[in-house]
Structure formats: C-alpha cells, structure tokens
Write a structure and sequence with these properties.
By secondary structure, the chain is of the alpha+beta class. It has one domain: Heat Shock Protein 90, CATH 3.30.565.10. Helices cover 34% and strands 22% of the residues. Strands 1-2-3-5-4 form a five-stranded antiparallel beta sheet, with helices on one face. The chain is globular and about 45 Å long. The two termini are 28 Å apart. This is ATP-binding protein.
C-alpha cells in the first residue's frame, strides 16, 4: 500500500441470496483496486470466504430491512469488512454437541477463528458485524505474477498456520471497534 489516505467504501446489498456472490466479487474488486494482493491462494482467499460468511449471516439473520449495508476500510495492511443489518440481536453461536459443530451456523465460528479481529456492536436500530484481516499489498501487477515453487512453500505454510489457528479454537482479540455513522 502507498501512503495515500485510508480507502473506504460502502454499498447496499439487496436481501437476496444471489447477492452474496455479487457483493463478494465487489469486495474483491475493491481489494485489488486498493493495491492489495488478490491471490485467492493467500490471505485474499480467506478474506473472500469471510466476506461470504458475514454477508450470508446478515441475509439470513439480519432482520427485515430491504438491504444490508457493506462497509470496507483499509488501514495499512489491515482490512476491515462489516455488514450493517436491521436486527439488534447479536449473532447466534452454534452449540457444540458431543465435540462437533452442527452443519449450519458455522459462519461466525469461522470468522472468529480465521480473522485477525472480529466482533459486533449495536448500531442504530440494528447492528454492525465486522472482521479484520491482514492482507499484503500486491508485490507486482496482477498480470505479471507467476506461479513458482516458492508460492507452493508459502501456500503450504499458510495452510499449516491456518490449521494451527483452527485447532486453537479460541476467539481472536478484537483489534478495534469499527465506528460507522448511520
């Protein structure tokens, strides 16, 4: 990233399941346009997954408003993505039964385990659910990147590190509270 002011974007997500993919693609487009590495095999792939999870959670459990609001901010290499919905209740957490999670309801669990920070807070008549993730700047223009053996080693280390984080199964500390004006 360059020394420019911190980028921020907001957009509406209509309450239709098909909109998850559209909003996810928009978040990835903005990530790349801000100069971040958009390689889906790296942190950007985790970002893409977490964006899908937080939007899906908002669509399924976020109240009755006609649309959700997506908010995306970058400060250095820290990306914050949030969804504002119209349900003031906090996100539901799945109950663990006999050491395993149910088939549904894993989205917030994934966000807690995989993000560098996450949380929610009341926001007007609804709430804001957010996560933060460190994503490196693109080293080369996307068209100039090539797959190398070094990429394989890096991918292997990232997957190993992700496995360690999942096994820890503890929520990450909240890095900061996202303040979004209505």
């Amino acid at each position: 990233m360059t020394g420019k002011s911190a980028p921020e974007a907001r957009w509406q997500i209509p309450r239709q399941e098909v909109e998850v993919g559209i909003a996810r693609d928009e978040a990835m487009r903005r990530l790349r346009s801000w100069g971040f590495d958009g390689n889906p095999d790296g942190p950007a792939g985790v970002f893409k997954l977490l964006v899908s999870e937080v939007i899906t959670n908002g669509l399924r459990h976020g109240g009755t408003a006609e649309a959700l609001t997506a908010v995306m901010q970058a400060e250095g290499d820290l990306i914050t993505f949030a969804v504002r919905d119209s349900n003031p209740a906090g996100p539901a957490r799945p109950l663990e039964v006999a050491g395993s999670l149910p088939l549904g309801g894993r989205g917030m669990f994934l966000i807690e385990v995989m993000a560098d920070g996450s949380g929610w807070h009341p926001d007007g008549e609804g709430k804001l659910v957010w996560f933060q993730l460190r994503v490196p700047a693109a080293a080369l223009p996307l068209a100039a990147t090539e797959h190398t053996d070094t990429d394989e080693g890096q991918r292997h280390r990232q997957m190993r590190d992700l496995g360690h984080r999942i096994r820890e199964m503890r929520p990450r500390q909240h890095v900061r509270r996202l303040a979004v004006a209505s």
